[in-house]
Design goal:
Shape: flat
Structural class: alpha+beta
Distance between the termini: 53 Å
Mean pLDDT: 77
Largest sheet: 2 strands, antiparallel
């Protein structure tokens, strides 16, 4: 094994890296019985950190 293969990353470090760059989550879920679609859920989410360069979309809270 090389050093890169043995390297362990803590969950907090992984979460910090993902939030720094942003994460896009997309997915579709369909509940179907006997080939009849009963429920369909579409998921589109953007998860990102907020700082001075990237302000919150809801404005400042006082």
């Amino acid at each position: 094994m090389t050093v890169v293969e043995r390297r362990e990353i803590a969950l907090v470090d992984l979460l910090d890296r993902l939030l720094a760059g942003g994460v896009v989550i997309t997915g579709d879920l369909t509940l179907r019985i006997a080939d009849v679609d009963l429920v369909r859920i579409d998921l589109n989410a953007l998860i990102s950190s907020v700082n001075k360069q990237v302000p919150a979309p809801w404005g400042e809270v006082e």
